[in-house]
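Our preliminary data section would be incomplete without showing what the modeling component actually yields. Below, a chain of 212 amino acids is followed by its predicted structure, encoded as tokens that our downstream tools consume directly.
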Amino acid sequence: MRLDASGARIFKINVSDTDSTGWGDCVRIYELELYAYKEAAKSELLTGKAQVLGVATASATTNEGPEQAFDQDYGTKWCTMKTPSWVVFDVQDPAYADRLKVTHAGGATVPEDGTLNTNDFALEVLNPREVHRWGLLALSQEEQTAVMADDANWTVLKSYTGNEENVTDDPVEAQVAGRIYRLKVTDGDDNTWNGPDTVRIYEIELYGKRPP
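Predicted structure:
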């Protein structure tokens, strides 16, 4: 039986009629189980208001900084001519990440050549057993950078090797509700133009469920 008891905390069971043995008014109840119905949380975009906390390498130009990967615009990009590189971002509230979508060079509003897509990269979450998010945010900028650069402080949620897709869009399994994440690129483009190994990421979209 489903009951409407929204917001209730204290309940009473009223027994108006006992057993029918005839030799005494006895109540024999072995267990009472009351369940609360909770609507499942829906996955939502976590990076809509993401704040960039740090980046490993300088951008190629002043208008191609890491913030461009979180502006919900497939016509702007984060570009750096050095790998390995990473960007650390804060989604403001803890959430269980369940989907990662990354738009690479070939998936832009005005597509670049597919050979410029990001090859090897990974999504990581700050490991609370190593560094708590409040501890990180309380540090100086120099101390934060050292913590963000240390691989021991991060747990890999999803990794890619040899990617050739213009847009990667895949499920993610997270065991902890994370707030601070790192996207680390270890191999940028195919380097067919004989230049430096370059990162060209137009958008990073992380989805997940926020705890109640």
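The beta strands are 44-45, 51-55, 78-80, 85-104, 120-126, 154-160, 167-171, 178-187, 199-209. Residues 141-149 form the longest helix (9 residues). Preliminary results of this kind motivate Aim 1 of the renewal.
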